[in-house]
């Protein structure tokens, strides 16, 4: 019962934090704001999460858990080709990002932190309370879980012939993931009304997926322009 009560209160705090981080932003949100929103005392909030940095890392851990659930959901349905899985994952990933913008930002922020963490000199620029967070340490252990599932999907496609055999699974999947991140980052500029850009979100997404599939199948071929015979006179 005590465990369930703890989990319930932690969920209340995390849900409150996600709501406030989404509306007010991380910097403007205070721990007392989260406590008030969760209807829990400030002291009890600090009992579960040591400080705001620790709370943000807990939110980031929740974000990775939810994204990992998306990957697992795609991978668990057998009887499909690797290409079908990758295509399904593409659609679900973009849906996740659209529906969970704050969680996606937390994931991308953590990726930036890992880049800093990998270098001894730049590691010093990370807030010490983040480095002390148990949630941050847990994230370092699990953040490759999504990638591992994605690599398995590509490997399956190479094995079943739906993806071209000369591709290297790890390079291929992380390239796809970087493309998906880029798609999300550019969806704002593309979606912004303008006369110069002859591209709209409703036709960019299917075009993006089609191009990705053709790249993976190896069906993209360069075509030479047809020679035009004309007389100067």
From TrEMBL:
The keyword Transcription regulation applies. The keyword Transcription applies. Keywords: DNA-binding, Transcription, Transcription regulation. InterPro entries: Homeodomain-like_sf, HTH-type_TetR-like_transc_reg, HTH_TetR. It comes from the Bacteria. GO terms for molecular function: DNA-binding transcription factor activity; transcription cis-regulatory region binding. This is HTH tetR-type domain-containing protein. It comes from Mongoliitalea lutea. The lineage of its organism: Bacteria, Pseudomonadati, Bacteroidota, Cytophagia, Cytophagales.
